[in-house]
Design brief:
Elements: E1 8-12, H1 17-33, E2 36-43, H2 60-90, E3 94-101, H3 104-114, E4 119-123, H4 139-146, E5 151-154
Parallel strand pairs: 1-2, 1-4, 2-3, 4-5
């Protein structure tokens, strides 16, 4: 029987080496406690503004381009998470994943609350530059401050 603190582990994942380290640590913890691991990735394109949107004149084609970018990022991210779920299942660990869009920290905390997560294992740094669409960045600090469960920050 798994201990309550280890029963439902959340790993926010963005494909960075730090989130890979977090996955490995979560697997290590899970194997000892027979936990379930949940992966979440947040696609965030809120900072991209279509030309003319600030004046209320965004063209439908530019709005459509952002939707296509978001959909493409979600599809790629789903595939990335599927490989992490497979990695867990091969080791006999129950795992599931979800891709969402929105504010990265808010979505991680909301998911943790919905799934009654008992431990968050998060990488200390995320991706940078254009890869920020799926990045955690300084999110690890915010998650550790506002989570209603313990958070383990992995370097």
């Amino acid at each position: 029987m798994p201990s309550d603190i280890l029963s439902r582990i959340l790993v926010p994942y963005d494909g960075s080496k730090y989130s890979d380290h977090a996955v490995n640590r979560a697997i290590e913890i899970s194997r000892k406690g027979l936990s379930q691991i949940y992966f979440i990735s947040v696609v965030n394109v809120d900072y991209i503004q279509p030309p003319g949107s600030l004046l209320g004149m965004a063209s439908p084609s530019s709005v459509n381009a952002i939707k296509q970018l978001t959909d493409s990022a979600k599809k790629e991210t789903s595939q990335m998470l599927a490989s992490q779920v497979s990695k867990c299942r091969i080791k006999g660990i129950k795992a599931d994943s979800k891709v969402v869009s929105g504010n990265i920290t808010d979505e991680i905390l909301k998911f943790a609350k919905q799934k009654k997560i008992t431990l968050i294992v998060i990488g200390s740094q995320g991706l940078h530059g254009i890869k920020k669409i799926k990045a955690l960045g300084s999110t690890s600090r915010k998650v550790s401050e506002f989570a209603s469960c313990p958070a383990l920050i992995v370097r």
